[in-house]
């Protein structure tokens, strides 16, 4: 029985480069970092990196300009899904709906990240968690929270996870927006949130896909429960 050959190192590197571009927010026309920086970021040799770039260039995703470098030609999600229109108001019940979308998407993303993450992927996730620990305001905590989840999506090696999470956006990461938790629970809220993210990080760091999925599921379900309580407290 004939089976498909596993993707080459260059093909896997091309997927990771796509993920890195999406996670970094680079848009069409943006210049990529120098070759040596990308080699360090992706932990590959110059030969493998050049083969990966050549593949993306052949697919029209990157373009080279003599003497200037390599640029993003187009984003793979151009014309893709739109969770909401720009400026559209999002009510609390819509946020709960988006949390259900996150549950379906991010539980599997955490498991894939645990199996596929590179050392540089893990370093980025750890850096975002450290940023959450150092956050001094609710908005800063939410921003770092969102970046933490984008970093996990990037660690899957599948750029589609990043595209969908970015489309959902940080509106699916509940913050005050008039629906705040009671002030007395503020410190407890931050403590629980950090503990949940620490468990997700642990699963990914240890390469334990089952633990990572369970930790992500618990976190998103707990977020939904806290947000429902906030809605009731503000109604």
Give the helices and strands, then pairings:
Elements: H1 9-23, H2 35-42, H3 46-58, E1 62-65, E2 69-72, H4 92-116, H5 119-134, H6 138-155, H7 159-168, H8 186-205, H9 209-234
Summarize the structure.
The chain is mostly helical. 64% of the residues lie in helices and 3% in strands.
Keywords for this entry:
235 residues, Four Helix Bundle (Hemerythrin (Met), subunit A), 2 domains, 9 helices, Arc Repressor Mutant, subunit A, elongated, mainly alpha, 64% helix, two-stranded antiparallel ribbon
Class inferred from helices and paired strands:
mainly alpha
Helix segment count? 9
Strand order, sheet with most strands: 1-2
Identify low-pLDDT runs: 77-89, 176-184
Q: From the 3D coordinates, which CATH architecture of the largest domain would you assign?
A: Up-down Bundle
Instruction: Determine Rg (CA atoms, Å).
Output: 19 Å
Give an overview of the whole structure.
This protein is mainly α and 235 residues long. It folds into two domains: 9-72, Winged helix-like DNA-binding domain superfamily/Winged helix DNA-binding domain (Arc Repressor Mutant, subunit A, Orthogonal Bundle), CATH 1.10.10; 92-234, Four Helix Bundle (Hemerythrin (Met), subunit A). It has nine helices and two strands; from the N terminus they run H-H-H-E-E-H-H-H-H-H-H. The protein has helices at residues 9-23, 35-42, 46-58, 92-116, 119-134, 138-155, 159-168, 186-205, 209-234, and strands spanning 62-65, 69-72. It has a two-stranded antiparallel sheet with strand order 1-2. A hairpin with a 3-residue loop joins strand 1 and strand 2 (69-72). The model is unreliable at 77-89 and 176-184 (pLDDT under 50).
């Amino acid at each position: 029985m004939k089976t498909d050959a596993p993707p080459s190192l260059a093909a896997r590197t091309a997927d990771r480069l796509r993920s890195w571009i999406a996670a970094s927010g680079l848009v069409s026309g943006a210049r990529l970092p120098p070759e040596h920086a990308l080699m360090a970021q992706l932990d590959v040799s110059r030969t493998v990196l050049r083969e990966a770039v050549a593949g993306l260039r052949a697919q029209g995703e990157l373009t080279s300009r003599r003497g200037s470098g390599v640029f993003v030609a187009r984003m793979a999600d151009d014309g893709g899904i739109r969770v909401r229109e720009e400026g559209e108001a999002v009510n609390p019940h819509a946020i709960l709906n988006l949390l259900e979308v996150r549950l379906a998407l991010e539980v599997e993303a955490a498991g894939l990240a645990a199996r596929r993450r590179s050392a540089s992927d893990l370093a980025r996730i750890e850096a975002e968690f450290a940023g959450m620990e150092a956050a001094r305001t609710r908005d800063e905590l939410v921003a770092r929270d969102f970046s933490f989840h984008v970093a996990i999506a990037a660690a899957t090696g599948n750029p589609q996870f990043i595209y969908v999470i970015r489309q959902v956006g940080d509106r699916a990461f509940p913050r005050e927006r008039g629906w705040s938790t009671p002030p007395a629970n503020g410190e407890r809220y931050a403590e629980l949130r950090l503990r949940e993210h620490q468990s997700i990080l642990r699963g990914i760091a240890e390469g334990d896909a089952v633990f990572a999925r369970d930790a992500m599921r618990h976190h998103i379900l707990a977020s939904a429960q806290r947000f429902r309580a906030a809605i009731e407290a503000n109604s």
